[in-house]
Design a protein that fits this description.
Elements: E1 3-11, H1 16-26, E2 33-38, E3 42-48, H2 51-63, E4 67-79, H3 84-94, E5 99-109, E6 112-119, H4 122-131, H5 139-143
Antiparallel strand pairs: 1-3, 1-4, 2-3, 4-6, 5-6
């Protein structure tokens, strides 16, 4: 079960991130999770929005000169306790699945943190999660966040 993520390439120049978030805010698009990775010349902004806003976000970004794409990631429920994330990371490591990146969701659910994973093998990752009782947060659940 995957969720949609939008990735935007930004020049590493002062003010570019606020211009991006202003564009989304002015169009009533709520960013539910965000990650930024940078190099000396550019940054990668990855974010999650409700499903109804995915295509509109992409269109707005492209209309305004941004290089953006949509891809799939996994949002896992991780027990919010010491060692909760470590257990999950060890399961992936033992299965030979690499983590390309991860970041946390702006929301939590009960006693669970919500962590977004981009894995080298999504199908195998989902299988490991399922076999070990780690549930994933669905796109429908993301859509219903108030």
């Amino acid at each position: 079960m995957y969720i949609h993520q939008i990735t935007v390439f930004l020049e590493n120049i002062k003010g570019t991130l606020s211009k991006l978030t202003t564009l989304l805010a002015d169009n009533d698009i709520d960013i539910l999770a965000m990650s930024i990775a940078d190099t000396s010349g550019f940054g990668l902004v990855r974010f999650i929005v409700r499903e109804r806003d995915n295509d509109r976000s992409l269109a707005l970004l492209k209309e305004n000169g941004y290089s953006a794409r949509k891809n799939h990631v996994i949002c896992a429920r991780v027990p919010n306790e010491p060692g909760g994330l470590n257990k999950l990371l060890c399961l992936l490591d033992n299965a030979g699945i690499s983590i390309e990146y991860l970041y946390s969701f702006n929301y939590s659910e009960g006693n669970n943190a919500l962590i977004i994973f981009r894995l080298s093998d999504r199908e195998a990752g989902l299988k490991i999660f399922n076999e070990n009782g780690i549930s994933v947060f669905s796109q429908e659940e993301i859509n219903s966040i108030a």
